[in-house]
Amino acid sequence: VSSFGPSCKEAGSGFNADKGLFRSTACCPPPSKYVKEEDYVFPQPGETRIRQPLHSLSPEYIEKFRYGIQQMRDLPDDDPRSFKNQAKVHCAYCNGSYTQNGQQLQIHNSWLFFPFHRYYLYFFERILGHFVDDKTFGLPYWNWDNPDGMVIPNFVLEEKQSDTNPNPLYDLFREKKHIKPGVMIDLDFTGTDRIVGKYYSQKDVNDTTMNRQMMRNAFDAKSFFGGRYVAGSAPIANADNLVGAIEAGCHTAVHRWVGDSEKPNHEDMGNFYSAGYDPLFYLHHSNVDRMWTLWKDMEVVGHKEPEGEDWLNASYVFFDENQKPVRVYNRDCVNLDNLKYKYLHSSIDSWKDRKP
Ligand code: C2O
């Protein structure tokens, strides 16, 4: 049995509650008018959503994106599509609100990481697309592996877009040292700011990090996706005790780099329970998901998804753009033609052949 039914209670783990919390740990979805979830029916045929690099969005696209996020922010708390409730979905699957067979669910640190987040973003993107009323609207990706995308664009950072208008892409709980105009991401960040020397730049560090985590240390399903995690395994550690190279590496580095180190749980991005409250989360994970497609497209022997029923049949429940609870399975997210979105090309030359 490897399907994860949502039996939710307001529980939680993985944060320092006694040191103060900046977000709610009540992460269960609001009561639904639907009694039970149904298997998701993929829309066919349909238009394809295009995910574009964050740093090259047109002003019109930025405006549309902001509008959609604002619409989600404005939804009432009993609407599962609200920005807040979407943030809670992440918390529920990560900080022990959801249990199955009495065991707390944790979709990180194992082979569930990539498929879970692919689906999470897929529904987030469809909700967004619903509110901007555009069937081709895709979630942008924070293209941190490309030199042009290593600095976060100002329109994501500024508190207000005008004197009277707040910026829906802004988040209050971010690292003040990093989240300001012109600072380059450190994809190898481990908690201490790097002093870049005169023989290498931050870009060099980022390029070698990408090469290591996409090529040298990610040569088969296990090293890329992470170890087996099935019903009955320990809640955090997976059976193989192996976290995928990207998840353990640049993915986590970006979370830590963005989260506020002055907050007890490094809210928002630095802890699972709060990460979804920062719009950067979705932009970050869009690029993480893109890594899966790039890795797969390399046509290197060994670059394949995990095999076997335990992985293929693992499933999650999300709310779709019509507030309906739906169940989705790993096996259906491998082929992007099924999900109807794709990534606009962005060069990977700076790290592809980079030697450490
Ligand atoms: Cu579910 Cu980047 O974490």
Secondary-structure map:
Layout: E1 7-8, E2 38-39, E3 49-51, H1 59-74, H2 83-94, E4 98-100, E5 103-104, H3 113-131, H4 154-157, H5 202-216, H6 221-225, H7 245-258, H8 272-275, H9 279-297, H10 309-312, E6 315-319, E7 325-329, H11 336-339, E8 341-343, H12 349-352
Parallel strand pairs: 2-7, 3-8
Antiparallel strand pairs: 1-4, 4-5, 6-7
Helix pairs in contact: 1-3, 3-9, 5-7, 7-9
This protein binds CU-O-CU linkage.
Characterization of the model:
By secondary structure, the protein is mainly alpha-helical. It has one domain: Di-copper center containing domain from catechol oxidase (di-copper center containing domain from catechol oxidase). Helices cover 34% and strands 7% of the residues. It has twelve helices and eight strands. The protein has helices at residues 59-74, 83-94, 113-131, 154-157, 202-216, 221-225, 245-258, 272-275, 279-297, 309-312, 336-339, 349-352, and strands spanning 7-8, 38-39, 49-51, 98-100, 103-104, 315-319, 325-329, 341-343. A hairpin with a 2-residue loop joins strand 4 (98-100) and strand 5 (103-104). Helix 5 (202-216) runs antiparallel to helix 7 and helix 7 (245-258) runs antiparallel to helix 9 (279-297). The termini are far apart. The chain binds CU-O-CU linkage.
Low-confidence stretches: 1-5
Strand order of the largest sheet: 1-4-5
**Name of the CATH first level:** Mainly Alpha
Number of strands: 8
Number of domains: 1
Order of helices and strands: EEEHHEEHHHHHHHHEEHEH
Query: Any idea what the CATH architecture is?
Result: Orthogonal Bundle
Small-molecule binders: CU-O-CU linkage
Helix count equals: 12
Major beta-sheet overview: 3 strands, antiparallel
* Strand-pairing-aware structural class: mainly alpha
Rg over C-alpha atoms, rounded to the nearest angstrom: 19 Å
- Helix share bin: 25-40%
CATH domain topology: di-copper center containing domain from catechol oxidase
Q: Roughly how many Å apart are the termini?
A: 42 Å
Question: How much of the sequence is in beta strands?
Answer: 5-15%
Shape: globular
